[in-house]
Amino acid sequence: MAKRTNLFFLWTTLFTVSVCLTTIGVFSGFNHSMGKFRSMLVSLLIVLLGHFLFGDPIRFLILASLDAFWSPQNLKYATVAEVGHQKQLDYLNLRLNSLRAHLSIPEKHRNEKLNSQYREIVNDLWLFGKYFLFIMCLVLFLSDETTYYTRNHIKRLFTYNYSSYYGLYDVGELTGAYDFIKSTLIDDFAIDGDESQKSWIHSEQTALLGVVRLRQSRVTDFQHDRVSDPPFSEKSYLPGWKLPYRRFPYDEVYWRIYEPWVFKNLHSGLNLLVLQQHTGYLRSYPKLSGYMSLLARSQQNSHVIVRFLRKNKWLTYNTSVLFMEFALYSVNAKLLAVCTLRIEQTTFGTMIPYVNVNAISSFQKVDHLTHLTILFIIMYIITFVDFVKGLAIKLWFEPAQIRSFWNKVDVAIFVLNILILIMIFIRESKITNIFDHLANDSKMEFIQVLEATHVHSFTTILIGFLLCLITLRLWKALEFSNVFQLFTQTLYLSWRAVASVAVVIIVLLLGFAIAVSTFNGNNSFNFSQFRQSIITCTCFTFGYTNGVSPEELFRGGQFIGAIFFSILVFVISVILVNMFVSIINDFVCTAKHQRDMISGRRINIFQFIYAEMRVYVLKIKQFPKFRICYRRNNRTVSENIMKSIQSIRNKRKKWEATITKAFVAKNTISPLDNIVEHAESKYNQERIYTIGAILNTQIDILQNLSHHHKRTRRQSE
């Protein structure tokens, strides 16, 4: 065993020292760029991860090998003759400690099933409380508040009219898109005259990445069945939309002339996370296909391209939608803004403009993070490793526990963490590839940032789901509180009745939304679409009437409007919703009564924690500073006891006199009060008996010690 222990400590020391030296050596070169504090934090993180992931398995392997080759000898138990007779003083001390433990652990604490439940709750509360705290701090520290303002400012600048140009909302006809492109997308990004760095007129620190791409979807087949929307054209044309299309030997030389009339489909198998449809006001449009034209880097060449497109009538009344796509990069904010300007043409020739801006942070590496953020990242990783370790041990020794709902939630949390980590690496790699591509002097290319934007959006969605799952898992740990227990028990008891009423409400809302949309959809925006009608009716039912006016229900006629209003207000809002609330209220009362019946015979979690920590409290009280000394105040013990009893009696007489003068009430005693009072009296009686046994044992110890001293004195004489 000595050899085994020495080898174990030798291994631990060598492993820790080697990992520390390796880490310090690796990160010593980054001290100038990262800082010593960041290098120390990263070194600490690698040491801890190495200890959890590699140190523990190797340590257990060494211990198992030592147990296999140097097995410990069998323990030798002493016989009765070797032990001898037990001294009475040792027995009394043992009995005294046992009675003190019995006094600190009452009968209610001896429910082992409840104790194991509370122990699991305490462990979950400690683990997931830290988990929730660290991930919330990470989200707050890593979130960039400038993203929202950047999106709003860029959207407003491209939407409305200003002194040097006019906005997208001022495009009244399709040919006005040429003037908008000329003034807003060409002239405003050439204020310095430098073709290699195109700065924006509103901000010199914001540059245009690559070139602007113009993309349109056309409808040419007007002989469709008139039931569905006409399909978009996928034919290729010659300049001026002439047919038949044919290739020329000099197409690659004069590609700018033929490109705008050639249909292109940029869909690929790598765009799995990219939604392939743009949802517009009128219909959905393809996202990576259509007739495309690229502007140039220089202002003069871009004007030539726009004049060429206008002269050959690239935009006609067959154009269903025009997209203007480009990417902006803000140097100060380190934000990459992906802008998509859309103009939809209705069947009457009017324009419906829309501006969409997605802003993502370009870099989130270690050298761009603060010290506090790095510290929270390290704490989160340590907590996550601890969580994975506990989950793996639980499922390894008891695989049947995977059927439990909460263990499935734990597995989902683990999977989401891995997915988020993978998506973050993919996003950073894509953004890095974009800037590496720009560094290779690619001036005449459109920078495709769509995949990076969708990866960023998908990562944000996964983080939101992770927060929801951690909050749900923390809910289970918070069930030690009576409020959470009451809510959970209410849901368990009432889910069938509540689900039935909810289904009835949903069915009536769907039918009512269809009916209102049929009668009032042509005259009201809130009921123009089916999904909009459902949202409007649901908001009106539950009292959110800020954007809904009752007059909108009367657009189809006064009589029909009165029927709709009465159904919505009285049937759905008053009858069904109140029935829903009444059912929940009844089951809350039932769950509360069941909880009160049980709570009188069980301890709460704070009493459990105090009983578990009682050993440490007693050890702390043994220190001299924490010992409670008895003060006689020049009186005997009996006089002090009588004085305390007399003060308690005087206080009780004053309280009874005050209550008698105030009012006389007859309290009805319920069976639950009898049960609780009986349990309290039984607990007090047991406590009194235990205290009496402790006092008797202490008296026996004193007598034993006094007899021992007398015997010793006689022997000495």
Summarize the structure in short.
By secondary structure, the protein is of the alpha+beta class.
Can you put this structure into words, describing what you see?
This protein is 60% helix and 9% strand. It has 717 residues and is an alpha+beta fold. It folds into four domains: 1-72, no CATH class; 112-143 and 367-480; 146-362, no CATH class; 484-599, Orthogonal Bundle (Helix Hairpins). The strands form two sheets. The protein has a six-stranded antiparallel sheet with strand order 2-5-1-6-7-8, with helices on both faces. A two-stranded antiparallel sheet has the order 3-4.
Keywords:
717 residues, alpha+beta, six-stranded antiparallel sheet, two-stranded antiparallel sheet, 20 helices, 60% helix, elongated
What is the averaged pLDDT score?
Answer: 77
Shape: elongated
**Strand/helix succession:** HHHHHHHHEHEEEEHEEEHHHHHHHHHH
Could you tell me the number of beta strands? 8
Distance, first to last CA = 50 Å
- What order do the strands of the largest sheet run in, or round the barrel if closed? 2-5-1-6-7-8
